[in-house]
Specification:
By secondary structure, the protein is α+β, with helices and mostly antiparallel strands. It is about 30% helix and about 40% strand.
């Protein structure tokens, strides 16, 4: 098992937040509100929930949960 230091964990979160902020900015300009929630068990992510709300008629709302184990979604 590879142990992640607190600094590595914080840096990874910082990079993910920066990338997701840029994605949400672009989506907001397109009339989409996007939220991502990542749930961790210790230092490892267990699942992520993506929630997209649309103000547009041609784009439907999305709410999906992706699990790390095998990368399945529900």
């Amino acid at each position: 098992m590879i142990m992640t230091t607190v600094e590595e964990y914080q840096r990874r979160e910082e990079l993910l937040n920066k990338a997701f902020y840029k994605i949400t900015s672009v989506m907001k300009n397109l009339g989409l509100d996007c939220k991502l929630k990542i749930v961790y068990e210790g230092a490892n992510p267990t699942y992520a929930t993506l929630n997209i709300k649309s103000d547009r008629d041609d784009v439907s709302d999305v709410c999906e949960t992706y699990y790390v184990d095998g990368w399945t979604y529900a």
